[in-house]
Amino acid sequence: MIALIIVIVVLVVLALAVVGMYNGLVRLRNKVDEAWNQIDVELQRRHDLIGNLVETVKGYAAHERGTLEEVVRARGAAMAGGQSPAQQAETEGLLTQALGRLIAVAEAYPDLKANQNFLALQNELSSTEDRIASARRYYNANVRELNTKVDTVPSNIVAGIAHVSKREYFEARGESRDPVRVDFGSSGPAVPPPQSYTGTELPRAQAAEPAPQVEGADGTDPAAPDPGPTTPQGS
């Protein structure tokens, strides 16, 4: 009788442990899905802002057709449905590169840089990039926790029964680990302008050379100080 009670208690404990692991896996899976939905919302906002930014730039720099079309193509690829997180990160990275080239082009148009709509779109896009980065960190943290549960014993057994599988991280392939970050602070490293002679001042190399000395007709140096009238000896 006692042995039967012990067996029943052990089975109940195991059942509770399995239920607890199952519920924990389901909660983690739901958190990952929720985190990805938040990223998707911010990405859609990003795509809308980039579309408006392209239209604004087009009004001032319509002849920059190659750069504009590149951004439009990259935006279309990023907006394509059915992408996994890894694929989405890759297309977003390509869009970020194209957007960086568009911003660099805009630097050459002072009227565009001063346009209030352009400035507002830049600020909104920069804020959206920050929210995407925050949402990405939250998503990846939950994915890491879920994948750890799926890989480790005994929760991996329950994961197989519950059909809970590992998820992909949302991060860039290659050197950069932040696929959706755009820095509007500068368009690149400052390059010093080439030295040129404007006619208002001598180039430094010429200014450092001493002026040539020309002797007068009597063989004296005209730049030398006048010694004054000479007095005959004995006067």
Automatic annotation (TrEMBL):
Lipid bilayer topology: Single-pass membrane protein
Comp. bias (Pro residues): 224-235
Cellular compartment(s): Membrane
Bias (Basic and acidic residues) ranges: 172-181
A matching Pfam family: LemA
Region (Disordered): 172-235
A GO CC term assigned to this protein in UniProt: membrane
Record carries keyword GTP-binding: no
Family: Belongs to the LemA family.
Record protein name field: LemA family protein
Source species of the chain: Nostocoides japonicum T1-X7
